[in-house]
């Protein structure tokens, strides 16, 4: 039993979460929750969360850069890199398309929500964007401003979009300029191996982080959070579960033949970490480790597909934004025409790309969706009531989608190599 507990990270995370909830519930029952946050030992418990997330923030940028560089340079040719990149972008676009279609389709088939009689006040400190910020040119400019940043500044700020773009361009340049067996590629492989060893050590602290996070959320959480928007939250949760438990695993089963049970057993640890931290970026090192060790995805595939997914593959976020737009439009009495629905669809896809991989990182994108559909920006106050707990579920689905993408794309790459191999063999035998 001890050996199983020691070797199973998902089991450790589950035990840590249950223990944290039980301990925090005891304080709540004894009406000590208000006093707990003032205690010194409470701050000590939160050090688990601070330490773990801080260590991950320290290495995640370097992990993305080195893994992408090695992944690109190990592909061997520009043509093969082009195929993998194109396949990755198409797959992520396809799953995001399904997620938004699911959310909008079900929302439109359900009875309309009752309009509000009074508007919900916007909390202090919530910054609303201007209408001009939702235009196509403004969105493109925002993405470019995020991506075209000095790589040193991007590393210090944790700007994954800029890190991915710089690493991608540098990797292509190295692949084009240097011979296949150049010593620099061996140096990259060595650095990548060293960083992955460091990440493996950091991941061992994950149960402590989960205990801290669940304890904090249970002690400080408000019960009204789950009462005021229960039906909307239930709808989003149900659709997210359908996408994460049926749609994505079905794609993996159809393409790779992997059983759903084995799939979820393999990816349970990164999904649990994504659920606890609400951060796909913080989960990225663990996702890469699991993809290679549990799903047997080649390093050249995982090191390219997963960092790209952390930046642009946000199935859960896109689904949430589509459902939320319909919900808020009906609450505020906005009559959505066909063009309005199309704008919601397009903006949900576009705004999910480059959304920060951190808790509540999709709120700026949600404002763009509201503006594009003609929904008052003040409606964002409705979502802020319930958005945080829903964020945990959709982040887990985002990470699941990344892992399944790496599995599917790696299978396609292997099939392509297998089909090319007999042709090469026949050519060699002919020459002999």
Please explain how this structure is put together.
79% of the residues lie in helices and 0% in strands. The chain is built from 18 helices and no strands. α4 runs parallel beside α8 (160-177), α13 (280-293) runs antiparallel to α14 and α14 packs antiparallel against α18. The radius of gyration is 23 Å and the shape is globular.
Overall radius of gyration: 23 Å
What characterizes the major β-sheet? Answer: none
Number of helices: 18
The overall strand count is 0
The computed structural class is mainly alpha
Strand content: under 5%
Q: Any idea of the CATH topology?
A: Proton glutamate symport protein
* N-to-C series of helices and strands: HHHHHHHHHHHHHHHHHH
What distance separates the N and C termini?
Answer: 59 Å
Mean pLDDT: 76
Shape: globular
By CATH, the architecture is named: Orthogonal Bundle
Number of domains as seen in the coordinates: 1
Protein name: Excitatory amino acid transporter
Membrane topology: Multi-pass membrane protein
Keywords: Membrane, Transmembrane, Transmembrane helix, Transport
Pfam family, one: SDF
